[in-house]
Amino acid sequence: MMVDPYYRHVGRPEIRVDARDKVTGRALYVHDLELPGMLYARVLHSPHAHAEIVSIDKSAAEALPGVKAVLTGQELPYLLGLYMIDKPILARRKVRYQGESVAAVAAVDERTAEKALSLIRVEYRPLPAVLSVDEALEARVLVHEDINELDYVKGVFFPGPDSNIASWNRTIKGDLRKGFAAADLVVENELTLPQVAHVPLETHVAIAQADPYTDRVTIWTSTQSPFAVRNLVARAFGVSRRDITVMVPYVGGGFGGKAGIHLEPLAMVLSRACKGRPVKVQATREEEFNQLPVRAGMRGRVKTGVTKDGKITAMEIYFDWDGGAYADYGVNVGRAATYSGAGPYEIPNIELHSRTLYTNKVYSTAYRGFGHLETHWIVERQMDLVAQRLGMDPYEFRMKNILRDGSITISGERINAWSGRVDHCLEAVAREIGWTGYRSEAERQAAFQTGKARGKGIACLHKAPAMPTNTATAAIMQLDEEGNVRVLLGAVDMGQGVYTIMGQVAAEILDMPLEKVKVICESNTDANPYDWQTVASKYAFMGGNAVIRCAEDLLRQLKEVASRALHCPVEELTHGEEKIYHIQHRDKALTYRQLALGYAFGNGNAIGGPIIAHGHYIAEGLTNLDADGQGLPALDWTYGAHGVEIEIDVETGEIRVLKMASAFDVGKALNRKLCEGQIIGGAVQGLGSALVEGYKFTPDGRLLNPSFTDNKIPTAKDIPDQIVPILVENPQVDGPFGARGLGEHPMISVPSVVANAVYDALGINFYELPLSPERVALAIARHSDPANAGCNDPSNASAGRDNPDASGRHAASPRGETA
Amino acid sequence: MREMESRMFEMESTAPRVQLNCIVNGEAVSAMVDPAMTLLNFLRKELKLFGTKEGCGEGECGACTVIMNGLAVNSCLVLAVEAGGARITTVEGLGAGGDLSILQREFMKHDALQCGFCTPGMLMSARALLDRNPDPTMEEVKEAIAGNLCRCTGYVPIVEAVLSAARLEREAGRS
Ligand code: FES
Ligand code: FES
Which of B119, B155, B158 to mutate for ligand 2's pocket (most ligand atoms within 8 Å of CB)? Predict the structure, then answer.
């Protein structure tokens, strides 16, 4: 593995600090925690997608020995929400999705709690349900009948009165009409993708212990967001943040699904109802699929105008998110799409509408990529579809429009020489897979005859963190009497490796052995410094900068004491090898250890004191988006590209990925091995979305596949024959050692690149996910039927139609549509 | 009054109990268990061996994998009483005398874990494979861990770690 000779620690493929605990079974997760007197909760769920709760009789459940509390929404007059305050802890008056929590029991053990659930009688009056984006837009039925009264973050989100629109965010730049008028060809398409589950191997779980005499509560939870949990619990219950302690041990996977707040409030009210005994609420796998939030489904309609020589003149995009019953992070996913939803290209004239819609389905939240896998499914397919219409190599078409130094993004930001290079990423993957353009129809036919069709594809991506403009984080360091450094962070390590990387950054600045830097692998909001939350692929960047500043503060304090001890000016001191020494007379030196707790002269006089340093980082220079989606929302852009070669069994429709090359401009890899781990893991997770995963609902809105039996994720047998992670390193000047975020990006554009390769292999375009064997085989059968010769996948025959939008207005005529 | 009743309830158990004798990580264990209790719950709740995880409770994820009489089993699908007389190894039994095993070390070296929640089960499936087949092919490794879901790593480093451990164990065996 290549290692930068310039750095002692940064970039090196160090073993993660938590590895030993995790291979010995000593790593404890909230799943494993038991507290004295702990009670176990179980939850009753709605069998209906949309229904009025007529009555609930819980008396028999309460009478069951061993049951300590039975709660329903009636006793819990709280509304929660991140951006739209719309969600009760337990359903009140009505249920809005099948799977919604209706009642909860706390009992001495799970079996008793389970039994108590069966004794609760709920009478429902079913209501017509909103089960598609079209039904949501029609607004004949409202998911939130009280939408006009809901509280929300104003100026950032835009709910529609008397509608199912939780937020309608838009970007308007340039002159759309002029842009389309300047086009030689206009290509219009519609693509969709279903809801997908995060599937952390540790399901959501929280334990709360609420002091019955005060407002104090301690919450142990499997979360990415200890400080956001503190904040949201305080807000929901009207208690002080002082009284809330959130503890996070090891977390068994998050992927965005454990950001924000989930089971914590329920655990808290149950503990209160049980006179302060700790109550553990742990989701079953079925609840993980069916009660807890998912990645939204989405329909994208996209229209692109291009000149003959392949310059994009205009784009019009409608993203309609099937957001489920509550807004949660869904509305912010929709908002993020407004500044990145057209892909990493320069689009002079654009109108982009992103509507997060309420439907009567399990609600949506953040999921690794924060909407970008979905938006890139639309736009990176569209890039290929337009290239096909132009008769142009999709590589060349992308390169003609790709963001470069001096380009202006769709939110009006100027890209500069230090923003990273998406063209380098695309070049790298194209080279790696040997991309030479689409194969010819004759080549396709020849391969088809062998029973195995082969194809290659490419796709690009970009993403910046979606976060408030004033997002902040901090780090604390303390020295002990041996000169070890303890580092306290606000971040949560759910496997992405942040503790390891931050240890490397600290050891680099302090110039000391990694073994002497101890990053505390547990989060406690009473002890750790503040961090907004561990989301958005922003921690390596922000936390890295905070740790650098913290280490510099530590050195400054050491030098201050050393300057008095050594009788020389601070300016003449430097550091290295765990020592502070004089720049000229190097034997005039004191070790960190000698200075750690204060320095004592020979006569006993002492100076200094225990060294504690801090560093913080706040995003600077970002601005809120205006009503037209213009502003500076991006702390850093990470660009990337994928290239794949696939083989399709033309009988079964099964797609096998022979090779996948994935390149990201990470600026600087802080730990090459961990970066590659993120890429490989993310690529395979993306293949899940591409090939197998997706929610299926009955016509009345019940989830058909709430288990691993029917909702599969990739296994070891489904991985590509070869995955080549490529780290491009064009430094981000204000990043730590030049680094940018990487956690989410590897998943983005994976479905797009696979579908692009499927076209290359078969000459068939797909517009829906997943690309399951059934879907592919069916399309092949129809395609080879001479009656359909020349048609695209007929199961997607609606794609490319001239689609009226919500207001009934017709988009400009589709001169080059594909159907 | 009611509080007292339910406290008594907590103290006495409603379920009948049966005798279970088995060997867990080399130690003889003898306990009275609820006949409906799973082996997974016996290990975690009774023996407090929390290394073995539960990811689904339905035999679909492999997080609960332990080795029973030489075979990798989903302990959430096995009743504790079925383990009567059996030899069981959990992740806590993998290391020898305070030292990590080769397999554990290779998992660390190849970064075959991220969140680590699937790791104990992965290790046990891999251990069972190497015990019966010290020289597996890549396909055999994939097959052996196909019942163990991992959402983080993309499996590639896990497969590499197992193959590398197999090689090192063979070398260690020869010397
Ligand atoms: S917990 Fe046993 S297989 Fe999932
Ligand atoms: S390491 Fe997280 S599930 Fe495997």
Answer: B119
